[in-house]
Amino acid sequence: MTHPERQRPNPLVRSETAPESAVDETRRRGRGARSNHSGRFESERRLGFDDGWESLGELDPFRTEVYEEPARSIITTNKSPDISFDQSINPYRGCEHGCTYCYARPTHCYLGHSAGLDFETKLYAKTNAAELLEKELASKGYTLKVIALGTNTDPYQPIERERRITRQILEVLERANHPVGIVTKSALVLRDLDILSRMASRGLAKVALSVTTLDRRIARAMEPRATTPPKRLEAIRGLAEAGVPAAVMVAPIVPGLTDSEIEGILEAAHEAGATEAGYVLLRLPLEIKDIFREWLASEFPDRADRVINLLRSMHGGQDYVAEFGRRQKGNGPYADQIALRFRLALKRLGLNERRQPLRLDLFSRPVAKGQQMPLL
């Protein structure tokens, strides 16, 4: 399917200035977001409703649609001082995992979509990612730095099983001896153990599994189409046994809901073979604050106020502070307590004691089409 044309307003959809109500549960079954609010760049808000003729297509269940999107460039760079990587690749836009807290949701609004259900059902596959990557690595102006996969949307979300774009990217990186770090919450990463183990044996690959909770009920509600927590721990074990350095990201920590599990997650990941660990506090910028609140009120009404109040206490009374250094970890007594607990658990378990930087000295620049092959 090609890139879709922007849809014209449906005459059976009335414009409203008030926020839309939650989508009926039967239409969003298996999804994370409860609503599909118009994006912040849209000039009007639209609300689907049954006019009695059963003719409105929007009343159908939300199904996953994948659009092919040839990219113009594939390596994204950033200069954020609180992020551990300088360049990254995201093979897909949108993510079917449907994590209600996903900080990438607002980026879907740039495409004319909603950060809600659209984000997890209207997906874009960058079909020429591997070809572009080889071209960009071959450029004489390319500066070698570790490339991160999975910084915005998950490179191993369900559609990767058929699309295999992430694997194609890894094949290019392996041929060029280019270092790569991966963050995912999917056990599908084990499919590529053949490539990852070879790269890791040369000090060129690391993988981090995001484990938000060990509670299956919370995980299923909060991350409906992601790999279950036990399977993520099995993925850490599989990576470690294959010689691939494995880490665990306790991310995001949701105060009042999952923060009690910090030590348990770290212990389980360490037992599975993880040697490194990190964490990120829940972030609620832009549309995410409403999407997460709707979900929280629906799934955990008895804890909703406490969760939001604790979070705001770590952001100076606001839902979110975008300031570098504060946005990831927050500040204040409760944030300090989380940081201290995390440090003590790391020390007790011996995590982060054997951090090995990925190698940059093995890189072999690909030969672009039309260039002369090296003589030696």
Question: In brief, what are we looking at here?
Answer:
The protein is of the alpha/beta class and 376 residues long. Helix content is 29%, strand content 13%. 41% of the residues are buried.
What this model shows, in words?
- The protein is of the alpha/beta class.
- It has one domain: pyruvate-formate lyase- activating enzyme (Alpha-Beta Horseshoe).
- It has 11 helices and 12 strands.
- The chain has a 7-stranded mixed sheet with strand order 4-5-8-9-10-11-12, with helices on one face.
- α8 links the parallel β11 and β12.
- The termini are far apart.
- The N terminus is likely disordered.
Label this structure with key terms.
pyruvate-formate lyase- activating enzyme, three-stranded mixed sheet, single chain, 12 strands, seven-stranded mixed sheet, disordered N terminus, alpha/beta, 11 helices, 376 residues, globular
